[in-house]
């Protein structure tokens, strides 16, 4: 790279994670703060703006053995506790959305009652937050007629449920992570555009908990860079990794806020290393990844956490294994990558795509769950694509084709796939985007007929209706912590990991 590019990279290295990114012909530039829109004027806001909310009156602190992501400051609400949120300047606009982002991993439900403490305790609604990972924003739409009351009195938030709830406060503003801080999104429009989506995604605002969530985001950023030449995406990858790595040391927490520094936390946690291997193929943590896969390997060669075969391994193990195998020119790893898919062909049977096959009982669970289908098909498609010029396996290719046909048969008229694809429940935008991306990769690699493109295009068109004014993706099935009942319902959330799948679809379809 030229001197200008090297200087820009040095400026971005807050933690000196990757001193040299060997990608020829691409310069980097700093990513601007996301979608703040125009300033206020006499008629109100033009575009959209995230108005920071100052937090007044919190109680409690996180448990001493737990750690908050990136050292950011949380606010902890105890049951029946309240906080006051005050905007730092006057609000004027058409559409208002209160946003809070989860700072402490959740395995239960939090109900937050939102009101204006104006003497009459004007009720605005509730935030219903269930089984959430950290770094996920939740929003409540507020009628614009309440803007004067909010300007005068602020917003009161009370926790109605029986477990403490932790959310991020105003911290690390220099990173531009405005989406995770308490804020009111004020907008002149109700929906976002693809430009809003890209600007929000290619920034620190798309960061997620390290593991499959962040890995999906990183993969989306890489596809935007490699297929669309988006330099902002490469800069965002660097920005994301700088938050997780201190030099060569990985620093992150698991799904219980327990520190897992320089450790591998199960097979679902290894998808981020596909992107890492592309930009820093000799990073020492990659050897730790291989060692972890070795420790998870069963007698038949499958890398899995136990007796259950899960769909996630198609995307979180086979795919990064193929990428690392290519980066290291390791034929053994490449063969092992295909072996992971071959052992998971059992997940695609009859007219179904299954999340889990329990080898001890010979039974399936989470049949036709959309995001499980996405993990399977996307893992197959990306692994086949990585290895196509070196190793091919006809059984794997035919299984992939069958899986795609099974999914297409369950696509809804609106272009999306429901959370459980063969039942009547709300669509899942993340699963839909992942399935569609796999279809387009299959077409690009000559595995599927070009006529299949219409299924992906129909999905792409529908997804634009699920963008917030500042470009976040709604309609995502929640993390799979509440079991089948939660997934079979219509509860859907904003999730940047879903944006990762949508970004992959954008890279293939445009």
TrEMBL record:
The keyword rRNA-binding does not apply. InterPro entries: 6-hairpin_glycosidase_sf (IPR008928), 6hp_glycosidase-like_sf (IPR012341), Glyco_hydro_88 (IPR010905), PolySaccharide_Degr_Enz (IPR052043). Signal peptide: none annotated. One of its GO terms (molecular function) is hydrolase activity. Gene3D superfamilies: 1.50.10.10. SUPFAM superfamilies: Six-hairpin glycosidases. It comes from the Bacteria. GO terms for biological process: carbohydrate metabolic process. Keywords: Hydrolase. This is Rhamnogalacturonyl hydrolase YesR. It comes from Kriegella aquimaris.
